[in-house]
Structure formats: structure tokens, C-alpha cells
User: Fold these one by one.
Assistant:
Number 1:
Amino acid sequence: MAMFTSHILSTGWYFRDSEDSSPEAWMPVPEVPSVVHQDLQANGRLENPYVGFNELDARWVNEKSWAYRKILQTPAIPAGSVVVLAFDGLDTFATVKLDDTIILESNNMFQAHRVDVTKALETEGEHVLEIEFDCALLRAQELRKQDPNHKWASFNGDPARMSVRKAQYHWGWDWGPVLMTAGIWREVRLEVYSARLADLWTDIGLDSNHESAHVSAFTELDAVNLDSSYKVNFTLSFEGEEIARETATPKDRIATVDFDIPQPRLWWPHGYGNPNLYEIAATLEKGQDEVHKIAKKIGIRTAEVIQQPDKHGKSFFFRINGVDIFCGGSCWIPADNLLPSIDAERYRKWIELMVAGRQIMVRVWGGGCYEDDSFYQACDDLGVLVWQDFMFGCGNYPTWPELLESIEQEAIYNVRRLRHHPSIVLYAGNNEDYQVQESAGLTYNYEDKNPENWLKSDFPARYIYEKLLPDVIQELSPRTFYHPGSPWGDGKVTSDPTVGDLHQWNVWHGTQEKYQIFDTLGGRFNSEFGMEAFPHLSTINYFVEHEKDKYPQSHVLDFHNKADGHERRIATYLVENLRTATDLETYVYLTQVVQAETMMFGYRGWRRQWGDERHCGGALLWQLNDCWPTISWAIVDYFLRPKPAFYAVARVLNPVAVGVRREHHDWSITHAQPPKTSKFELWVASSLQKELSGKVELRFLSVDTGHEIRERIVHEDVKIVPNGTTNIITDGVIDHTIDTEPHVLAARLWLDGDIAARDVDWPQPFKYLDFADRGLEVSRGSETADQQTFKISTQKPVKCLVFEERDGIRLSDSAMDIVPGDDQTVTVTGLRPEETLKYKFLGQ
Ligand code: BMA
């Protein structure tokens, strides 16, 4: 009995413009998977679209159709075997021909396809495999025209995008270029077999006391001849060691076994325990022969979303293995416009960065793609929770029968592909489509529970989010929580802060509130909020080619910022808060200070609210990453260079964090009259499970002299509430008629005699402060061959000390506030003894 064999078809491909039928038009493809922009660049036909204005010179590519071809050799086909061409992803309108016969037509890049080509390859020798990719840009416009009665309301990109199942950001977004890719974007294989295991999945139950787990494992048999002689041998291993083995005979093609695991090693998000993974393997056997083997890593854990009525409305937070978890993290967009260019290592680096930044949840946003397996594998391995949107974003989607059918297949395929990942704890129906429903005044009667009526309404996609997708989840991954949209809450208006999740854009977009009040604008779970900042200077140097363009408002810099009104908004937040600058380096830094402050003001307050009956269940900033080198809300740029906000967020998400904050006094609307008094508060937020005892100190330090202007407050033996907030001072008052000098409130927390956390509250806005002559000293401390430490001290308070980011180095901290009498140390990994780092601080 022949073994299952698989040949990856990655080489020997050629491509050409479909309209150019001359034989010389074929150009070699370096490697498949790829998309046409990569292949054109490799052939010298396209300049890097990420540099300068090249995106515009690449527009012609978007309007073309492309053909890919490869000569196939008939593989050895043992008697009784079939040959299948397996496509994991075709982008997007693909007609696949084998020797001029159409074998597949596909119009959804999120689906995989399997085509039996046994007959077609019967004759020995060479066969021509050709794939025509029809122009998705034009096809979308045609499809839209065919349905003029649909209300094509949307924001971002051409509304016609909603007619096509292709990553929506390819039509351009408010952080990304218009690059309409086409190509074989995921693996294609030739498989030869008489039988194979088509799928392997599990259902995992965990006892409430965590003493034992029950794993049911299932495989699906796909065989040419379904006789009863097949057996499936299942093994369960942990850290490479087999712990259990069972054999089953398939019934109706499904083989099932059950394992009981005493004392299971649970999968935990990082910071709460190890992300333990088991391996489940299934071997298909016929007689003595092993025919096919597949394996998956699985995790034993429970994941719940707790929605209970409470004094704030209705809660929305995650409980993993019985532990309530404040989910601080980020929203994720595709890490590149040219998706196949992201390899497993780059995905891993992104997730490693999240862990280094103490972020615990990533939201895969609905305008991108169902990510590569290696993305979720990295999340499983490193203990990062995943909020997974379905791929719909910012629009009123049509629901033609053939589109619904395609969407259903897409959902089935992807949920099957992803369901074993313990990291995935929530599926959401879409991104902001309910907001479009609201803003466009479309019909949404929550009380009407008849899905057929929804289809007939002017918001027909409700059928997708409240019927089609939840049915798929119920069938294929019933233990995973399903949420109709992000944001969404029990059918209430999406801006309702008392229920469901919330996208809070009234800082930056909307009413452009001051970021200092961000904490007062949150809801039960803040799944989007953001502030733009320029990327690292070396990233700017990558896409700005000419020295003459290296000033903050240059044409090319504006071109690399796709957000409507970005100049006004950046300017508003800078002018309100900081003394602005015109040199690029300082300007970059200032925008980054604003972003870091914004993120801190949001996260810090919302984490504090966690302790108030889970008032806020989590915060996912917009956005972690970029898909090209650009100016956006990302806190880490395209080249994985962190912006200062990355460190500000990490500090606020410290497992035990101290917070100090004086009340907001709005200087703009009081005609810049200073307040007479300011209340202040001091607290500790802990995500640890045990009560701690610590010492908390608060000092009042003059910005001008660095001296303590008032007696410090010290609380010894503070009992720190586990997994909650400990309020230490709630009614502090600064009397500015007595303490007239502008001063910072500098808080420190000691645990077991060591400083465990710091926070500094500053008089606002920074532009009124005099930052002259800080007396900052940065000196070298201990060093090894690849690790240097820097000791930092100051005579007067320093705001946002940022160290240079350099590829290959890692900073233990940055974007720090330094105050007198509290020296700090930064460890730089990857820096050699002879190298040094530049740094910058506010008012330098
Ligand atoms: C949110 C997101 C994105 C957008 C971002 C910034 O609404 O869902 O669509 O990029 O805001 O505007």
C-alpha cells in the first residue's frame, strides 16, 4: 500500500501580462507562493512600491490580469491512487487550466481548493498548468454595477471591494497603499495517495478543579476505496514524550478516540503560566502499512467571555482557566501588502515583541486576512490570546446567494484550519460594519429574530454576522466564543459604553478629545483606540529618497500618511501639548511623545478600572504594526522598530503597576488659567493571583529645581489586592496657592525591598514647562560582549527619555521619565562594548 506523498510546487513557474500572448512575455517567478508585485520587482519591471511615490507608478499593475504557468511532470502514480492538486490560496479571480482544460474557477482568496487531476495526468510526460488571474479591481466594479439597488455605504477603499472576497486593505486603507495583488499567494501541492487523513481535530474538556482533562480526537478519512481495513492510530505526547495511545476504526469516514489526562498541564497566556502544548498525532494504517500521518499542537484550557449584569451595565472580559484576565494588547493588520513575503520567522518576531511589551491579546482585524498558520503557532507557543475577526470591514456588504455560499465555504475552511489553536479565544463577525449600519441609517431591528427578514433589509449582511457565521462556529468550534461584530453589544448602539466592546475614536478622529481624559471615554472592553506617530527616522530614510524632502510636512511624507486630515490632527495634538519643532528628527520625536502619552493615559486608567468590578475588561490599541513603511497609528513600524509608545504600554501593563494622576484641568477652555487646586489619586494595579505587601512612596518634585517641594508620602505594608486595584489615595489635594512651583508627582512601589514599578504624573501641558538644564547623566554600567547597561540619573525631572532604536538590539526600557533621587538602569542586548546609543528627551 503506497504512502501519501506530497510535492510542493514552488519552482519552475513563469508569469506574464495576460494581454501579452507572445512567448517571450513569460518571465520567471523566483518562488511560489508569491504575488505579482514581487515577481515584477524580481524581473526589474517594477520599482519598490514602498519607496517615495512609487506606489503611483505601480497603479498600472492593479488594472491588469496576469497568467502564471508551470510545466508539470506526471508523478509516479501507484495503482489505485489519485492525484490531487491542492491550492491553499489563490488571489483572487483564478481560472486554473491543465492542458487547456479548465479544472477550477475560484473567486475567493480565503478559500483552499482540491482538484482531482488523476484523469488529466494519465498520459505520462509533461503537462501545462496555467492559472489566469483576472483583474480584481475591474471585476469588483462590474459586480457593483450589477447591483445598483444595494446601498454601498463604506469607509476606506473603493466600496466595490465589498463584492469581492479578497483582503479589503488591498483597495487601500487609511494606513496603506492601493496595491491590488494577484497570484498564488499560498502553497500549491501535488498530492498522490490512495488514502489520507483529511483533518484532525479535538474537543477538550477540563474539570472545574483542573485535576483531569478529557480529550476527544477525531480524524476524517479520505480514501479511494472505503473498505473496513483502515485503522487510525492516535498518540498524545507532551514535550516529545508519548503519554497515551489509542487505535480506532473509521465509521462513516470519521475515527474517534478519547483520552483522559490526569493532572493536565494547562495552556496559559504569558505572565499567568506556561503556554503548555500537547501534540496529537494520527497515523492512518492499512494492514502493516502506514499510509499517512498528521499531527497538531493543542492546548488544554478553558476560555470564557464573562458577560454579567453589574453596576456598570454588563461586563465583557475574558476568563482563562478560571482566572479573570485583563487583556491589554493590540490590533493587528497584515504585516505586509505583499503577503507571501512574510515568513514564519517574521511572524514570530512580531509575537515575541508583543510578549516583550507585556501584551497579552492580539486582534486580527477584519480588513486583512485569516493569517498564516505560523502566526497562530507563534501565539500558541508564546502565550498570546487571539481575537479573530472574520474578514469584513467598514462597510455594508451585499449578500447575493453565490456570495453567501462562498462566504460559508470560506468560514468552514478557516475555522477548520484554525480551531485547534488554544490561542484563539474569540471570533468576531466583522470590523465596524455595525457602525456603518448606524452612520448610513440602515435598518437594524434587533428584536426581529427572523434571518430571512434580515436578508431582505438594506443591511443584509446581518445575516452573515448573526446567522451564517455563528452557525459555522457552533458546528465546528462550539467552545469558542462568537461575537457578531467589533464593536457590538447586545444590539445596542455601538458607542454604548455599558455593554459589549467599544472602538473609541473620539481621540484623534471624532470630537478630538484631549488624550489626558482617555480613561473617561472607555467602555466595557476597548477594542480600538489610537494616536498616530511618525516612524523611526531610519524608516523614514528608507522611503524618503531625497535629502530636500526630509522635513515634517514634505510631499512624500504626506503621501506616506493615508489618514484623512492627518496634518490637522497631528498638528492639533502637538500644538495643544508641546513646543513644536520644524526639524524632522525632533518632529518625529514629538509625535512619538504624544502617542506614548496617549496610550499611557488610556491603558493606565482602564487597567485601574479593571479593579472596579471589571469595569474595563481589556484594551487593544489601534494598531500594533504596519503593512508598509508609513506614518500611522502603529506603535511598532514596518521594520519592527518600536516607537516610544511600545515601552509606555509595557510599563502600564507591568503585572504590578503603580499609578498616580492629578485631575485633568483643561487649559484650553479655561483660557489657560491655572487651576487653584488639583485633586490627585494614587493606586496599585496587580494582575497577580496572590496578595502582596509593598511599600508605596509619593514625592512632589519641582520641575524647575528638582527639589522636593512638599513632604513625601510613604505607605509601608500596603496590602495589594490580587488581580485588581488597590486604591491608596483617592482624595489627595494639591493647593497651587501654597505649592506654586510646577511639580511632578513621582510614585514608586517596592516589593520585597526592590523597586517594582514607577509612575510620574506631570503638570499639563508640557509646553508651559521649562525644561532647561536637566542635569541628566547617562553613563555606562556593566557590560558583556553583547549586553551593555546604561545608568541614568538626573538633577531635575526628565520627560520621555528615548534611546535610539537600532536593528539587532533590544532595549529593556525606553521612553522613560527620570526624576532626581531615583537612578534607573537600561539594559541593551545586542550592543557591543565599542558601540553607543544616542538618546533624546523632551526639551533637550
Ligand atoms: C478603525 C479601524 C480601521 C481604521 C482605523 C483608523 O476604525 O477599524 O478601519 O484604519 O480605525 O482610522
Number 2:
Amino acid sequence: MEEIKKKVMLSGIQPSGELTLGSYLGAIKNWVERTDEFDNYYFMADMHSITVRQNPSDLRRRTLQQLAQYIACGLDPEKNTLFIQSHVPAHAELGWVLNCYTMFGELSRMTQFKDKSSKHKDNINGGLFTYPALMAADILLYQPDYVPVGEDQKQHCELTRDVAQRFNGIYGDVFKVPEPYIPKVGARIMSLTDPVSKMSKSDKDPNGSIHLMEKPEDILRKFKRAVTDSDTERCVRYDPETKPGVSNLMQIYSAVTGKSLQEIETEFDGKGYGVFKPAVGEAVIETLRPIRQEAERIMKDKAYLESVYKEGAKKASYTAEKTLRKVYKKVGFVER
Ligand code: TRP
């Protein structure tokens, strides 16, 4: 019988901050669920992180911690290729080539560049500007069918498609043109203090986000303080337009307990926010507890972590280099 080739899925997260409850519920949890259905590549985008100045020892620690957390969240390294971006030189190599096929005007329109350059006015470096060409390389090297990303990365994924099509238009079918895979509403977890913006690992307000490694008492405190809405009805009802705070807490509670929004409304009918908010906190604590404990255990097992990222880099390089060789040949580089 002919073997059915699985579709390929690839994504990465920058180790530029602590992974949050939003990273878990919005991204990693979905990756775990799709383990068997797809051929998966997930990486720590450390090369992207240095577009903004990083403390070297923090970057190193967070990169390894992120790998430990991926595994602790349930991503099985036997079934998923987990690797560190800088360990696969083909990213930098293809990144350079694609820089030459990405237009200044296109890069100038990227909203993340505009955002980050206004936040880091003293360090508007070339890498920050050409970052989407590196991201296109990250993706196209693996010929993925789907790239699961958040809404904020959609523009970069569209640019990747444009660059792939441009390259294919000149040289023939070299790259698969991937589809972004944006999770449906519900997976987008918002800040606890500003529920109209996304829960972010680079949020300046520590009370807005929950880290995967956070202590239970801190989690509970943040949920108790979470912003609810100023409407007068004060009841647990899902309405993201007029009640973004409560709706976000309901989404979180739903994601960690598996209960539907309707069931949650019924459960807290007639009970105030004073009952609802700590209940969400407790449910989150129970979800994160085993993840935190497992990640702490794995972090201590340096030899195991090393074996995972070495094996991951080997597997990733094998695929990536195949694509890179094709590209080098097409553009006219002499074979090594
Ligand atoms: N740019 C992404 C972010 O900031 C991270 C990233 C880098 C990525 N390369 C990627 C995501 C490739 C998906 C595919 O979140």
C-alpha cells in the first residue's frame, strides 16, 4: 500500500520573554493536539530575538526553558521536530537569499516593524527591518502546508507567500506556498489588565499576563485583580464587545476546563465576579501545575535537553538543506 504523506506544519516562538498562558492556550496546546495528524517542526526563534537587544544569559536560559516547556506541555520530541533556529545554519543562508527577493517597500509596510521601531527608537537596526525575509526562510525551508500563527503574524505569512510566488515565478516551483493557519476565535487570550490587547510575553505590565512557570499564589492574585467591565450588570455573560474582560476570563475558563461558554454562564448565574474570578484562577493553577513541575524537572536534566535539541537540529537540517541546495542551484551559485 502506498504510504500517505502527512501534511507539514511549522511554527516558531521567539524566546524573547517568558511563555504565557496565552502561548499555551493559543498555540502550543493546539500543536500538541495535531501531533499525529501532521509532520511537525517547532522551533525557538532565537535569531529573531536579537533584533531587539537581549541579555545574553537570559536569552540562553529562556531558549532552553522554552524547549523544556514545549515538552512539558506535551509536545513529544519523538513525534515532533523540536529545534533551536540558530542550530540550523540554512535559516541564515536562505534568509540572505530571500532578502534579495523581498522589496524595501514591502518591508516598510510591516506593522510589526513600525510597532517595534517606535518602541525601540535607539535600536532600529537592519535586522529588525529585514526580519520578515528571515521568517520567510524559516518557513519555506521546510515546504510546509500550514503555518499556525497568531493574528499578529498574518502579515508576515502573507509576505512569505508573495516572496515564494515571486521566486517560483522566476525559477519554477521551488517553494510550496503555505497557508497561514489562524486559530478560530477563542484561542486568542487577552491581557488580564487590558482585555482589548493580546496577552503578550513582552507586556510591560506584569499583571496582564500569566507565565507558565508562575507560582500558584501569584496566579490567583492576578486573576482576583483582573479587569472586569464597567457595565452595571455585573454578571458572567459572554459578550466580547461590551464585556471584553469577563469574556476573556470566560474564554480562559472554557479552555482550561473544557466547559462551554453556555455552561459557564449557568454555573455562575447569580454569583458575582468575586466568585467567578478566583474560580478561573484556581482552574488555571491546576492546568499549569503539572506543566511547571515537568518543565522544572526537564530543565535540570541538561543531558536530556541537549539530546533533544541536537537530534532536532539534525532532523531539521536534513529537510532544510535539501531546499537550500535547490535554491542555491537555481540562483546560480557554484555547487559546494
Ligand atoms: N515572528 C514570529 C513571532 O514574532 C516568530 C517566528 C519566527 C515564526 N519565524 C517563524 C512563526 C516562522 C512562524 C513561522 O511571533
